[in-house]
User: What shape does this take?
Amino acid sequence: MCIRDSLDLVEACEGEPVVPPLIADIAGGAHEAMINILLALRGRDQTGLGAYLDIAMIDGLFPFMLSAIANWVSHNSVPKAGSDLLTGASPRYQLYRTSDSQHLAVAAFEERFWQRFSELIQLPTKSRSRDSDPGLIRKEISDIVVKRSARYWQMKFKGEDVCCTIVRSLADALNDPDMLKRNRIVLGYNPRINLLSLSAGTELARVPDYGEHNRFFGF
Assistant: This one.
């Protein structure tokens, strides 16, 4: 999806697709390999037998297209960019521009989230039904959200169970107090992400610095 220069809707871009960053390498390769290795180890613990693992990046990418595959299996056409319920077709699962050119990400797909979201932004009652025209509802919400700043909407939804958030930049995310407190992302010359979820008081072994052990391999 892309965001038009005008302040109304989020809709699919025309033209060539953009290249996503390392999706195949990490999501299709590393994560799939890690999951299969752990499953194989668990299987060995239970049966005493080893396993041959066939890790292909393409296999690991298909789960991220589950919604499109479900449409195809149901004899529907494969959704075009931005036309699936979870990629822009629904006003309940959408990006809306704020008055300061930031964006509100809405994922109020379930009815209870949607009704509370509608109340908070004061969406007209007639537009809250599933039978209402999605395009018209998107336009109405866009017109409401764009009148206020990202800060306003952040405070409006604070403490509310509505599945909404302001789209944050990478810098904002990395400097978020909650992220810093969790200490999962370690920045520096050799940045790393700690995926282990250890119990309180457990010390995580120090990760070697970049090139620290090169001498052992003759580099």
Notes: The beta strands are 2-3, 10-11, 93-97, 103-107, 164-166, 185-186, 192-193.
